[in-house]
Amino acid sequence: MSLKKLKLNRWVSLALLVLFIISLYVVNDKAVVPFILDVANSTLYLKETADDDPLGEIRNARTDAAQLHCENQLRKDQGAAAVPSATDPAYKAWSIGDFTYVIKGSLDLPGESGEGAHFRYACKIHWNAKDMNDADNWSVFGMDVNNG
Q1: Of residues 45 and 75, which shows the higher confidence score?
Q2: What is the distance between the alpha carbons of residues 16 and 94, in angstroms, rounded to a whole number?
Q3: Closest to 132 in 3D by CA, of 63, 71, 50
Q4: What is the pLDDT of residue 52?
Q5: CATH code of the domain occupying 56-147
Q6: Which residues have C-beta within 8 Å of that of residue 118, sequence separation ≥ 6?
Q7: Domain-wise residue ranges, the chain
Q8: Distance of alpha carbon 61 from alpha carbon 92, whole angstroms
Q9: Most confidently modeled of 3-7, 95-99, 114-118?
Q10: What is the DSSP letter of 117?
């Protein structure tokens, strides 16, 4: 191959590369991004529920029941017996939609040596919209516990 042909091929390759990059940008800008935005704005990912709680911090009978079930889960994890009523009147609860709540509270449990242990916890819990007092109708998704 001659040197002139090789230089010409380099320019053609460079021009094709630039053309390819520009065409990728145009296809992305005119087809891919609008399609993704249409899907994101559609009702494809929306779930209709009967949850009437507003999103955010909330306190009602459901969050009281959620707190009880979170505390009983913590008691179970620590080897203590469950109780029929919650003990922390200063808990905080947030509704995050679809009958799912985040509960933050504290709990005092007797330790192995008879001394009390103070636990602070955060619990993500979901209610299946049946009887609130039945523990089988609640699902604890996660529990973060701080002993101290």
Answers
A1: 75
A2: 56
A3: 63
A4: 77
A5: 3.10.450
A6: 106, 107, 108, 147, 148
A7: 1-46, 56-147
A8: 13
A9: 95-99
A10: E
Give the tokens for residue 116: 């009390």
Return the structure tokens found at 98: 């679809």
DSSP character string of 79-110: TPPP-SS---TT-EEEEEETTEEEEEEEEEEE
- pLDDT single digits (tens) 69-97: 999 898 888 887 777 676 778 899 999 98
Q: How many CB atoms lie within 10 A of CB 138?
A: 23
68-99 core/surface letters (b: 16 or more CB in 10 A; e: else): bbbbbbbbeeeebeeeeebebeebebbbeeeb
Torsion sign over Cα 72, 77, 80, 81: positive
